[in-house]
Amino acid sequence: MSFLTLGHRGVMGVEPENTLRSFVRAEGAGMDAIELDLHLSKDGALAVMHDAVVDRTTDGTGPIAGKTMAELRELDAGKGERVPVFEEVLDAVKSPLQAEIKDVAAARALAEVILARDLVGRVEVSSFHDEAVTEIARLVPGVRTVLIASRWRGDIVERAKAAGAATLALNIRRLTLEVVEQAHSESVKVIGWVVNTQDHLRLARALNLDGATTDFPEIRRTGRFTA
């Protein structure tokens, strides 16, 4: 079974997260896929940013939903980088992408882009919200989806199946072999996040995970050889 390594917001451990600079470096490091986050701007653009507000990752303040994309572009997202729109990322790198959406509205906007640019084979869609996963699957036939969870109950595999998610992305600090085995018995893959240390990488391998999300390029290199 192949072990996939996903670059978390690019490679946010060494570059400003969710920027073109970070995504290009992740691709250069050989990441199997690149994970990013999407929020809708005031004018409906798919802005690439993790938080609902710009305060932590830019020199601005306030909610993304209260700013147009032009206003977001005026902000410094680190090292002079600008807040990208999703379409810019599609053009800047060729790697497979895992796009995390925060709600049903973002699912609908992302569905339009996936359908218009025929991205079903390249873009996997993830969310903490079951309803967003269900909605993107309804709108885009054949799209691969991922249900994310930090804390979960015993029904997490059933939730993934109900939402049509082929993969679970679960907090590596809370993962157990029981959950992984249950998921695999139902043909649901499991990736762990965030795997930033050799100990966590060894744990990911011991749990027989299908992959890991990481902030650092070196995890991709050492992950090839860790038993």
Automatic annotation (TrEMBL):
**One Pfam family for this entry, by name?**
GDPD
Kindly list any coiled-coil regions of this protein.
none
Q: Where is the GP-PDE domain?
A: 3-224
Please give one Gene Ontology molecular function term for this protein: phosphoric diester hydrolase activity
Q: Which SUPFAM superfamilies does this UniProt record tie to the protein?
A: PLC-like phosphodiesterases
Example of a GO biological process term? lipid metabolic process
What are the TM regions of this chain, as residue ranges? none
Q: Which Gene3D superfamilies match?
A: Phosphatidylinositol (PI) phosphodiesterase
What is the protein named?
Glycerophosphodiester phosphodiesterase
What does UniProt list as this organism's lineage?
Bacteria, Bacillati, Actinomycetota, Actinomycetes, Kitasatosporales
